[in-house]
Amino acid sequence: MAVDPLIELRDVNKHFGELHVLRDINLTVGKGEVVVVIGPSGSGKSTLCRAINRLEPIGSGEIKLDGRLLAREGKDLARLRAEVGMVFQSFNLFAHKTVLQNVSLGQIKVRGRKKAEADRRSLELLDRVGLASQAPKYPAQLSGGQQQRVAIARALAMDPKALLFDEPTSALDPEMINEVLEVMRQLARDGMTMVVVTHEMGFARSAANRVVFMADGAVVEDRSPEEFFTAPRSDRAKDFLSKILTH
């Protein structure tokens, strides 16, 4: 059990029609922990990630952030979304705004910062992800890897308590994947609480405190990377690893 829990899911269930996509999920993520969620397609990984900040409503159970139950709607939900940053596989940047404007917008609208203050913070964060020189450009002028790093800077600009990553490298060309993972590794070293849904097993091994393996909407294993990759307990995990680690 994590010493100081930041994200807590208790008996969380979710259906899409007849399909039971999350089955009695119990998961605790401690402050400063990096939890990597892996598993076969359709195992509920992305739904779990999206449920944590209520992009996906749940059917039953409860989710707490920093000891508080998640609000279902309204201003409290907007506040929550500012506290839990989300990085998607498809960047979701505004095409008609510059890189700098993309990173500053949420700070001005949600955090109520003055433009000059927001822009100063944005430039600091763009520098942190190696993109300060790209601030005046538009997303279309950037590579996919650069756009994803802008999306990470934008999420960080809200000063979140935790960051959720939903397959952040799956839309990228292979040579761009590492530049994004390196930024994520640095965040992990800096103590950012992260929940990362990914197929990148190298990242899971090197940066995760815990690996959560999901299958059929349930958490099958929740262990240290060392234990999981060297001696998985379940047949589902053994089968999954044998398929991905031999390619």
Automatic annotation (TrEMBL):
SUPFAM superfamilies named among the record's database cross-references: P-loop containing nucleoside triphosphate hydrolases
Membrane topology: Peripheral membrane protein
Subcellular location: Cell membrane
Cellular component, GO annotation: plasma membrane
Record PROSITE patterns: ABC_TRANSPORTER_1, ABC_TRANSPORTER_2
Keywords annotated in UniProt: Amino-acid transport, ATP-binding, Cell membrane, Membrane, Nucleotide-binding, Transport
A Pfam family this chain is assigned to: ABC_tran
UniProt keyword annotation of tRNA processing present: no
Substrates-to-products reaction catalysed: a polar amino acid(out) + ATP + H2O = a polar amino acid(in) + ADP + phosphate + H(+)
InterPro entries per the UniProt record, alphabetical: AAA+_ATPase, ABC_ATPase_HisP-typ, ABC_transporter-like_ATP-bd, ABC_transporter-like_CS, MetN_ABC_transporter-like, P-loop_NTPase
GO molecular function: ATP binding; ATP hydrolysis activity; ATPase-coupled polar amino acid-transporter activity
SMART domains per UniProt: AAA (SM00382)
EC number: 7.4.2.1
Domain ABC transporter stretches: 7-241
Domain of life: Bacteria
Entry similarity comment: Belongs to the ABC transporter superfamily.
Name assigned to this protein: ABC-type polar-amino-acid transporter
Species assigned in the record: Streptomyces apricus
